[in-house]
Amino acid sequence: MIHYKHLILSALFLFSGFTFAQEAKQEEREPGHLNSNKFKQLYQEFSTPNQYRTASGAPGHEYYQQKADYKINLELDDKQQKIFGQETITYTNNSPDDLEYLWLQLDQNVRAKDSKSPLRNGGGVPAADQPSTFVGKHFNAPFEGGFNIEYVKDTNGKGLKYVINQTMMRIDISKPLKAGEKISFSVKWWYNINDHVNQRGRSGYEYFEKDDNYAYVIAQFFPRMCVYNDVEGWQNYQFWGNGEFALVFGDYDVNITVPADHIVDGTGELQNRKEVFSKTMMNRYNQARKSFDKPVMIVTQAEAEANEKSRSAEKKTWKFSAKNVRDFGFTSSRKYIWDMQAVKFGERTVMAVSLYPKEGNPLWEEYSTKAVVSTLKSFSDKTFDYPYPKAISVHAKNQGMEYPMICWNYGRPNEDGTYSDRTKYGMISVIIHEVGHNFFPMIVNSDERQWGWMDEGLDTFMQYIAEQEFGEWFPEAIAPNKKYPSRRGEPSKIVNYMKGDQSFIIPIMANPENVYQLGNNAYGKPATALNILRETVMGKELFDHAFKTYSKRWMFKHPSPEDFFRTMEDASGVDLDWYWRGWFYSTDYVDIGVKGVKKFYVSSKPTARIKKMMEARGMKESDLPPLVYMAEEGSDDYSDKLTKGSVLDNSSSLKEYMMDNFTAEERASMPTPKFFYEVEFNKPGGLVMPLIVEYKYADGSSEKITYPAQVWRKNDNEVKKVIASEKELISITVDPNFETADIDVTNNSWPKQEKENKFKNFKNKVKG
Amino acid sequence: MSINNTRIMQLVKLKVVVMVLFVSLSSFISLHKYYVSVTDIEYAKETKSLQIISRLFVDDFEKVLQERYIDTLSLGDNSVDFYIEKYFAKKLQVNVNKEPKQFNFIGKEIDGDMVHCYFEIEEVSSIKTINVTNKLLFGTYKNQQNITHLKINDKKKSFLFIKDKSSGLLKL
């Protein structure tokens, strides 16, 4: 009989729900649907793993990458702002494929007169332009930019046929370059250097009218090999201006000839220091190599100011050599002040270097090298020891741009030397960001042309950690702030973007050329997503191990987005397909709330709800086994009597069960909840996230429960939870510490709280 | 690299995204110096008052106050309140039902590199039209843009004021 009753019971409770639904819907049957579960694995979105890239996210057993070695001779014409260059490229085909032609990048051509880049944006006639904008748009003579290629020759000096397609050049080789073979060829070129302050660009010159000098920050100055790999073939996405660079690792020997009174630094180690340094500089340099606590001036401000007035007719050649880099950048000017400090990584000494004109002081001598040192330490701790011999920060107005071992950074004080906090923190932050780029993408070399977020997002995420550490290590530098005032990283800072107009938002997984708000899309959102993943979803330990694994696996290699996603899961044992799907592949946002709370009391009498079920089945009360009923406060089943006495007093079935199965002693030591609540949480937002809830009780105690994101896997809209407690529940708050970037917190509390009014709060505060 | 601002500036023209934009504009990674302020004007029925919050960059505003009044003024000091009030009375004008309104300065607070200034216009029982003229910082920065959001009862309107067009009207 008991068994029979139990069967009925399970039929009643477990299946009644959907039998009812089926009966009701029999007339009009709904069509079927595909699997749109938010927790569905990303098999469709991810490319199939293969011998080059494994399902674990690591390089496969046949992973390969090409190599491009460069020998470059360069002359900087300071009178006419031109670069003249000649290079020999030795290209090694490590792929299993024979290559019929070679592709090179001619990024300078983005500034050529016939460049398509300025034509790519639409836009009608605005209602009005400010005069300055109007002149900028319509009165400027076109700049004679772009590479002028003089020749492309093979090793015998014989011309090779080449075809230029905008920012790319195809070289037609006489016979295919077989797998495993090398080819060498030479290119000669020149170009006009752009004014990076007025014409923009990621390199160029700044002219200083007062002392009639130029400061050059030079990059994309030579024809470079395109990447050929298992993912893209030849990278054939032109350089339009927003998507940055996809480049091949190799060794560089670069000789740079400049006026003899210029100070030069660039990617790689200086090979002829004794030829280009004075004796004094040499001594100071040797001192700097041993100075681990503070920078040593190699060229002082007084010396730089004297040098500004010099006009040497002589030339000097600075020779640099760099191993295993993907690019080369350098800077040159008479104006530079130069300081250096040593940083230890294991047995190696790395030099942290800053170059700045006097216009950068007093800010730059105070903070630049300090920020470089701090960045190298913070990033190394989370990835791998910084492998290059130096890291340089160059002050260039309005610039924030990275190259291997060298970057350009903004942050210029007012003419009288004063500066605001905004200028100061802007400068420290941009240095941390750009020096951080040495790790992503200079070493962990993702494809910037296709995926802006893979370097910008990861770098901005790490920047947040590095900024906070800078604040901890140099409290006097950020005083009176207690914490470094980071602009990005904290969840609350991305809310305005994520709740914005959907017509101007595109998923992170998009090409940088097609993105509406690059700063939020490729920097802010991925950085915040990773920060939330680290602090709220995975926890620091699991995240940090996985992030480090990714960095080490792909150090000096070319990872794809899947390699990152897969490694993060593989090394942590946390399935994150749902997280990538929501945050990286969609524009969904977080909005989770508490919809309602019902209070229940235990009762001996069948409730209206159960009676209805019994009626539908033609059952009587005597057909049921002993049951514990729950009467909702305020319903017909409820009476004040239920609030008095214990649960055992109110339910005879429960009391009997307890008496039958437990001794008096056991019963005394068991917690017996008195209050029962059914809490309904809802999710107006599309993103699934852990449901973080703080419950507060009448006795002043509280508890925080984090339900895993999987709580939403069977119902993406709402989920109910039962709270059984010995204490009365007085309030519920979802995401009490603002960890999830919830875009609307007005639905996060029960009882519902009055909408925050910033004005009213402030007024009350002022009034005291 | 860090973020180039030109693309964002093109978008500023689209009023629908002005608020979102403001956030991206204030992000530290920007190459150009840009000049933007945001003013929210909201009607509070229960107190029958217009609540105004203006957010300006500290360094821009400080420079303007120093140039106009005393060159040692600092937004960190309380003594500056007198000048903030004076400056706003000149540069921000709110007409309700065609009548110019006086506003009370409630106070200011500094949040990172922004200063938030609070004002209140009291005894506004009904609004048929509201006209706002916002010339904040125009005298010093020719590229200054003042985003102004009005929220009166259920009606919302946003303006992007520039030097040549510094006032707008909302009819209810």
Can you give the helix content of chain A as a percent range?
Answer: 25-40%
Strand-residue proportion of chain A:
25-35%
Q: How would you state the average pLDDT of chain A, rounded?
A: 93
Number of helices of chain B: 4
Helix-strand sequence of chain B: HHEEHHEEEEEEEE
* Gross morphology of chain B: globular
**How many domains of chain B?**
2
Number of helices of chain A: 20
Summarize the structure.
The complex is a heterodimer of chains A (768) and B (172). With 768 residues, chain A is an alpha+beta fold. Helices cover 29% and strands 26% of the residues of chain A.
General description of the model:
The complex is a heterodimer of chains A (768) and B (172). With 768 residues, chain A is α+β, with helices and mostly antiparallel strands. Among the domains of chain A are: 36-62 and 451-588, no CATH class; 675-767, no CATH class. In chain A, 29% of the residues lie in helices and 26% in strands. Chain B is an alpha+beta fold. Chain B folds into two domains: 1-33, no CATH class; 35-171, no CATH class. The longest helix of chain B has 11 residues, at 58-68. The radius of gyration of chain B is 16 Å and the shape is globular. The N and C termini of chain B lie far apart (47 Å). At the A-B interface, strand 22, helix 7, helix 12 and helix 20 of A face helix 1, helix 2, strand 2, helix 3 and strand 5 of B.
List the helices and strands and how they pair.
The complex is a heterodimer of chains A (768) and B (172).
Chain A: H1 2-25, E1 67-77, E2 82-92, E3 99-105, H2 131-138, E4 148-154, E5 161-165, E6 168-177, E7 182-192, E8 204-208, E9 213-218, E10 224-225, E11 228-229, E12 233-234, E13 250-259, E14 263-266, E15 269-270, H3 273-276, H4 279-288, E16 296-299, H5 301-308, E17 315-325, E18 330-333, E19 337-345, E20 348-356, H6 363-382, E21 390-395, E22 400-403, E23 406-409, H7 421-436, H8 438-443, H9 452-473, H10 475-478, H11 495-498, H12 518-538, H13 540-553, H14 561-570, H15 577-584, E24 593-603, H16 608-617, E25 629-632, H17 647-650, H18 652-661, H19 664-669, E26 675-682, E27 691-697, E28 702-707, E29 718-725, E30 729-734, E31 749-750, H20 758-767
Parallel strand pairs in A: 1-13, 20-21, 21-23
Antiparallel strand pairs in A: 1-2, 2-7, 3-6, 3-10, 4-7, 5-6, 8-9, 9-18, 11-12, 13-17, 14-18, 15-17, 16-19, 19-20, 22-23, 24-25, 24-26, 26-29, 27-28, 27-30, 30-31
Helix pairs in contact in A: 6-7, 6-9, 7-9, 9-12, 12-13, 13-14
Chain B: H1 6-12, H2 18-25, E1 36-44, E2 49-57, H3 58-68, H4 81-91, E3 92-96, E4 99-100, E5 104-111, E6 114-121, E7 129-134, E8 145-152, E9 155-161, E10 167-171
Parallel strand pairs in B: 1-8
Antiparallel strand pairs in B: 1-2, 2-6, 3-4, 3-7, 5-6, 7-10, 8-9
